[in-house]
């Protein structure tokens, strides 16, 4: 625990962080990339250009300052960050670089208000946070290496097969180029893939959920082709995958990561709720339950615009017919003329869990929600209003095709 005087100094910066946190983080990133341009591939240039990354870091710094007396409150968020860092290949030595530029940025942005004592306090606070994350990340790296077929960092994979799943989503089956095994993983976890992006002049990594059950000789990701323009990096990685990565192409892959996964230490019902490309981790969970002959009651609820963008349609239909404990409920917001009610989908319009409470409210059930942020907020809010305990709701936001756009 940090000394109380240090904690008080850090807390004293909360008002300025609320007012100028984004200006601080914008200055920090610009400074770091100027002095250490080799770190550009580690950071999402889409989020840099749109300002999302600066905003996210500002909120994280503010949260840490506000909870400096009880950093354990941030444990769930830190666990999420640690998994993301490992998936991007961030190592302990990177923390010294980040810390140097963060402290310099505080001094440069705050000017005379940044006394030597304040900078020293933030140095101690940052050191504590770095130690927590480094320790967690070292454990995750070690776990990734120790399992059969595991590795650390980036490993070359061959695109063994490329399958169109819908008008927007394509699956990529990835096999180790070295001929080795692939590790097992928890249904719902993701991998990072890294590709060179010529228009940016750097490689970029993105996270995509594994969309098949574990235990195969390849890893499957199913990627939505995000729409972007030539002025920003939005969608560049997914577009590169869809347009230029062919069967036989080699791409760099990081080990499976993530703290969003199917909990198998219980035999209670499972309710899987998704929208759009958020279906991908749900298919992994559903396949796993089916392949392990689970007797857990399963409700699979999915919402999408229409049948043209409905991925895994045939597979879901087959699993529903074969699995006695599975009930599927598919919503098409605006069905097409060729979409067949009770065959392709069961309801039209927007998903409303209150209207199907008799189907989705099951005693002791775990609820897994995934999709665009507004969709998730709506479904989680509805579940809570219907009396579902927050501890039984697990969620992961999807941007353009994965954990991060």
Walk me through the structure.
The chain has 405 residues and is an alpha/beta fold. The protein is built from 12 helices and 12 strands. Residues 399-405 have low confidence and may be disordered. The chain has helices at 4-11, 14-35, 45-50, 52-66, 75-87, 92-110, 116-146, 236-244, 279-291, 313-322, 357-360, 373-385, and strands at residues 155-164, 169-176, 190-197, 202-209, 219-224, 250-253, 270-275, 298-304, 326-332, 347-348, 366-371, 393-397. The radius of gyration is 22 Å and the shape is globular. Strands 4-3-6-1-2-5 form a 6-stranded antiparallel β-sheet, covered by helices on one side. It has 3 domains: 4-146, Globin-like; 155-253, Translation factors (Elongation Factor Tu (Ef-tu), domain 3), CATH 2.40.30; 270-397, 3-Layer(aba) Sandwich (Rossmann fold), CATH 3.40.50.80.
SSE layout and pairing:
Blueprint: H1 4-11, H2 14-35, H3 45-50, H4 52-66, H5 75-87, H6 92-110, H7 116-146, E1 155-164, E2 169-176, E3 190-197, E4 202-209, E5 219-224, H8 236-244, E6 250-253, E7 270-275, H9 279-291, E8 298-304, H10 313-322, E9 326-332, E10 347-348, H11 357-360, E11 366-371, H12 373-385, E12 393-397
Parallel strand pairs: 7-8, 7-11, 8-9, 9-10, 11-12
Antiparallel strand pairs: 1-2, 1-6, 2-5, 3-4, 3-6
Helix pairs in contact: 1-7, 2-4, 2-6, 5-7, 6-7
